[in-house]
Design goal:
Largest sheet: none
Radius of gyration: 26 Å
Number of strands: 0
Oligomer: single chain
Order of helices and strands: HH
Helix content: over 70%
Structural class: mainly alpha
Shape: elongated
Number of helices: 2
Length: 115
């Protein structure tokens, strides 16, 4: 009678999205910031330019006031996006730096040794 156990052929399936590390979450947030920088903010600026050109034309006062309100709203959205990015880095810099410092130190020493 054999004294060993047979291996089971079960495979453990891991869901990549369920495993969240600081590094993955930081990269995800950085991708959002890049999307805002390259997609959302330029669109908002284009709308702002369009509305400022509309203000230069002769429009009734009511429409001018509506356009000015839209301009203020667009400006506040742009500022909010920029402020959110700064707040994120200011509030989380300690955690990010402490986490990434050993990683970067390892990369720096290995690249220095290779030269």
């Amino acid at each position: 009678m054999p004294s060993f156990k047979h291996k089971t052929n079960k495979k453990i399936v891991l869901d990549e999205k369920s495993i969240i590390t600081l590094d993955s979450k930081h990269k995800e947030i950085e991708k959002e910031f890049e999307k805002e920088k390259h997609d959302i903010i330029p669109d908002l600026r284009a709308k702002k330019r369009y509305f400022t050109k509309l203000l230069e034309t002769n429009l009734p006062i009511e429409q001018q006031l509506e356009i000015k309100d839209k301009l203020l709203e667009i400006s506040s959205q742009i500022k909010e996006l920029k402020i959110n990015k700064k707040k994120y880095y200011l509030n989380n810099n300690k955690y990010i730096f402490d986490y990434l410092k050993p990683k970067n130190l390892f990369l720096w020493t290995t690249t220095k040794l290779n030269y």
